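Try this one yourself first.
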């Protein structure tokens, strides 16, 4: 089974990934995330990070995950950090001091590994050769709400 595990304020650990993804690649199974968002982000920040994500996907030639709930949770995690820290600190990492990390900037989205090597461990921005890349560089606010409802 392939699954992304996210632990957020939205819920206890969540497993993502449609059953159709489950059988074909162990990489998905091994690719678990803990999204460290603390609260429900404001709609304004979700919209800002949604637009940013669409623009950066186009600019970098990358695509959203075939499972849009992955994209949605990461966007909401970035939005939460924008609300609480003033910067879109990557939500898929553990930090001893989030405020200091946000000031330092290395993991503010798009992080340095993404900018330099197109490496996004959150699976927000996927290159076309990634097994889990979809074909979309757009995601609506409604999709974000629907795919994270009840989390
Ligand atoms: Fe996190 Fe970097 Fe991906 Fe942004 S680009 S979501 S900071 S891994």
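Now uncover the answer:
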């Amino acid at each position: 089974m392939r699954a992304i595990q996210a632990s957020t304020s939205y819920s206890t650990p969540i497993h993502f990934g449609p059953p159709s993804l489950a059988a074909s690649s162990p990489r998905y199974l091994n690719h678990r995330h803990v999204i460290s968002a603390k609260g429900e982000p404001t709609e304004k920040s979700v919209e800002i990070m949604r637009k940013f994500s669409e623009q950066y996907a186009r600019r970098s030639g990358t695509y959203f995950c075939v499972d849009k709930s992955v994209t949605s949770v990461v966007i909401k995690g970035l939005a939460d950090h924008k609300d609480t820290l003033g910067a879109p600190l990557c939500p898929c990492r553990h930090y001893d001091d989030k405020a200091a990390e946000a000031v330092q900037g290395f993991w503010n989205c798009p992080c340095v590994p993404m900018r330099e090597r197109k490496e996004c461990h959150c699976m927000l921005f996927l290159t076309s050769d990634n097994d889990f890349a979809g074909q979309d560089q757009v995601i609506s606010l409604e999709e974000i709400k629907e795919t994270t409802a009840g989390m």
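Discussion: Residues 74, 90, 92, 107, 109-111, 114, 120-122, 124-125 surround iron/sulfur cluster (CB under 6 Å). The helical segments are 19-22, 26-30, 43-60, 68-85, 98-104, 112-117, 141-148.
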